[in-house]
Amino acid sequence: MSREGELRDHIARWGNLLYQRQLAHGSAGNLSARLDDGTFLVTPTNCCLGFLKPEQISRISAEGELLDGEPPSKETFFHLAMYEERPGAQAVVHLHSTYSVAASCLCHEHTKDDVLPPLTAYQIMRVGKLPLVDYYRPGDKALAEAVRLRAREHRAMLLANHGPIVSGASLEQAVYAYEELEETAKLYFILGDRKVAHLNPQAIAEINRVFPS
Known about the structure:
By secondary structure, this protein is of the alpha+beta class. The protein has helices at residues 3-20, 76-85, 98-105, 121-126, 142-151, 171-191, 201-210, and strands at 30-34, 40-42, 58-60, 66-68, 91-94, 132-133, 156-159, 163-168. A hairpin with a 5-residue loop joins strand 3 (58-60) and strand 4.
């Protein structure tokens, strides 16, 4: 099987698993991956990740032109913006999972540069700082520039009233990072207003030194 065929199977399998884990619902959310020739595979528009077939997946050019498969997600443009700013990114995951979206709906007036407090080492290792991107309606191409600006320094971000975008050096890494983000958001709500022992700057610096992104 070709590299493209393997990656198509991989995207479909992860999409099915994310749906089964209730991190994806309905036809919301999209996955993408970079191919060696500079083109991209993106899940198609209005598809349910739980029933996605490899042959449905769109292959597009770096300019977003459809080359093969079904029409791509209408949010493909911000995937491309992420790849443009992060040459090492080989995959991008964007879902509408409950706790992360809930966090995106809160007012973060004083914490827009890092929405979630530092709770666990794996949050720091896999997600890093999580900035909030201002709200744009679905499909608004102006979102691409907002994503691009944040992607220069962040591998993950939270779209206000929408949900996260997470990149990774592989599809597995992007999925694992997304799951870590969702679990961190869940912890954030479970802890609520209780007094919490956040990781201090020294602990964060040591994690980043030992486990560089």
